[in-house]
Design a protein that fits this description.
single chain, mainly alpha, Ferritin, 5 helices, about 80% helix, about 0% strand, elongated
Length: about 140
């Protein structure tokens, strides 16, 4: 069965919107954290990916999703639990989200049209890999 690239892009977009929501929640909680700059950088990176994926959906004639949907509900659940445990748990939850994002991009790349695939391979996926590395390093530095 042929997958519609707009549907795939919107799935990726919902994941990115969820990431932005989750980072914002963590930043609200971790006001005095030494990790704040790294978390702000990662949040901005996800915000840029939201813009790029929305633009690509529009280029393909689709309607970009505006909310994170089920991804957001899951992120709120994970982050809600992490908020009560503090910085280490919040950063571990963010790193888990980065893992999920990486798997999603790698799993869905074959479902994209050539232009969208190029955008993901050359721009969005490298940014995802960078935030994943950053959060993984940060998580391991806290133990």
């Amino acid at each position: 069965m042929q997958t519609n690239p707009v549907d795939t892009l919107n799935e990726l977009l919902r994941g990115e919107i969820s990431a932005v929501e989750t980072y914002r929640q963590a930043l609200e909680k971790l006001t005095g954290s030494d990790a704040r700059t790294q978390l702000e950088d990662a949040c901005r990176s996800h915000e840029l990916r939201v813009q790029k994926l929305r633009q690509q959906v529009v280029r393909l004639g689709g309607q970009p999703d505006e909310t994170s949907g089920a991804w957001g509900a899951f992120a709120r659940l994970v982050e809600g639990g992490a908020k009560s445990f503090g910085e280490k748990a919040a950063i571990a939850a963010l790193e888990e989200g980065e893992d999920r994002g990486l798997r999603l991009y790698k799993g869905d790349i074959d479902k994209l049209d050539p232009a969208s695939r190029a955008l993901v391979e050359q721009d969005v996926l490298p940014a995802q890999e960078a935030t994943h590395r950053s959060l993984s390093t940060l998580k391991h530095s806290l133990h």
